[in-house]
Amino acid sequence: MSQTGEVKKDLGSLISRGDKGTLTIGAQCHDHVMYLTKSPAKRFYTDFNFNFEMGEIVGRYYNLDSPAGGFDMYDLEVEALGGKLIYGENSMPTIDFRDPLIKSPEDLRKLKMKKVDFHTAGRYPSLLKSGGLAQTDMGMVAFCSPFSLAVGLMGFPALIKAMRKKPDFAHEVFKFIVDDVLTPSVKAQNEATDALMGIGADAWACIPNLSPDEMKEWVVPYNERLEKNAKRIGVTTMNVSGDYCEERIEKFDPKILHDSFDVEIASMGGTPAIFLGMGRWHEYPLEAVRDYTEKFRKEGKSVTVTAGINARLLRDGPIDKIVDTVKRYIDAFARDHNLSIFLMNVPYDTPSDHIHAAVAATHTYGKLPIADNLDDINFVVPKREAFDEWVNTEEAKKKPPKEKERKGLAGLLWGQMGKINDSPKFKEQYADAKMSFLYNLTDQRYGALIKVENGRLEVDHVRNDEETLKNLRVDGLLACPAGLFFDFSGGKLSKIAMIGKMLSGKLKVKGAKKMKELANIMTLMS
Length: 526
Known about the structure:
Elements: E1 24-27, H1 30-36, H2 41-44, H3 48-62, H4 76-80, E2 85-86, E3 94-95, H5 105-113, H6 124-129, E4 140-144, H7 146-154, H8 156-165, H9 167-193, E5 197-201, E6 206-207, H10 212-218, H11 220-233, E7 236-240, E8 243-244, H12 254-267, E9 273-276, H13 287-298, E10 304-309, H14 311-316, H15 319-333, E11 338-343, H16 352-365, H17 387-390, H18 394-397, H19 409-417, H20 424-429, E12 434-441, E13 446-453, E14 456-463, H21 466-470, E15 476-480, H22 482-489, H23 495-504, E16 508-510, H24 512-523
Parallel strand pairs: 1-11, 4-5, 5-7, 6-8, 9-10, 10-11, 12-15
Antiparallel strand pairs: 2-3, 12-13, 13-14, 15-16
């Protein structure tokens, strides 16, 4: 997809919203948020409503396109299982690897016998009460991916030793993690928040910790196993696995990079979405990335690139290098990829000027449509007041307007479709239209009602109960379980398979001609 017009949001993007007519930028910066707001670490990492409130404030200070809150996604499952965490006075909690939960097959056997209720265990009540990662149009289920969770339960050296010396034991650990830990965790979050998408954090599964072949043997299969399990619940999961983090520039290898991208895409359910994450991407050659994505672009497929700004570069600067890195990303990818910028794991003591510069560069060079020559754009590093000054201003105290609540699929679709209301072509073609469509996810509490009237599209959630549905009059209807919906909408069902699902009653379509009109509307978003 060429980003010469509107921002398109898809399942591969981590950024929640971008309504400024520019590319979007988000940040992983929980320790920095805690530091900037002078929040006590214990409260910040145990009271998630407070955590997200502070993240929202800091996100507005930096003019980010998504809230800046976040937490230690690698620890929650371990803690819920009874693992020991170290809570620092001024830092994020960390697992106490001196005493891992799984040191032997007997430890695994005991854990299997332990029944954990993820509605009540550890910090999950606080997470579920806050809505999980539902700070965005698209509510999210949060979890630690299988490989990184195995590290959390065993320690990295012990896990690698088991994979090489006792592979049967290692496989049992991974099966336990997926079937007995992550699947119930995803289910609990779906039940509490109605979120239909899950994002797994997997920093341990990267180059050079593992080779691409090792990731294809040990990481991808269990990511896919979780995806299959979660689909039965109605949640589509994606794992951020396979990051290329080779520290030695002289060892940069395009073949290994491309193999790691294969792992990333397989771990995202086959979605052409790649992450330039924690590695030295301010120094790696970007041509190797374009070489990889060329096969998708030739097939007319939209490729999402989430381009990370390295943590050390963010903290140490200089500002000119930070700005140049953003500009370089935009010049390389923004015209024919779905690009967003992401500040990776921002250190707590990162100067605010560095973050302001990265955000301003994204919104300046990333103004849509993207300029033919970015050198023609005048960029000025912004001069901003310190956070302690800004937080006492009227601007800071003014609460942003509360967004309309859209539960479940409605929030997900609004995140995808809402920007179409800014499209002159849509407004012109559907100025006199009046039609409505219902996506009824039969295994979820809520479906999505899409209305098109007088050149505007709206999405609302509707409760999936007999009385509500009986009184609802729509022009088009698609009814099926959530997992089947994601297969259908993601193009994973062949025409023959779709007919088979319809004949079996698993997929119901009414008003096919009108549903085709909805498909025509969706093409205007690309």
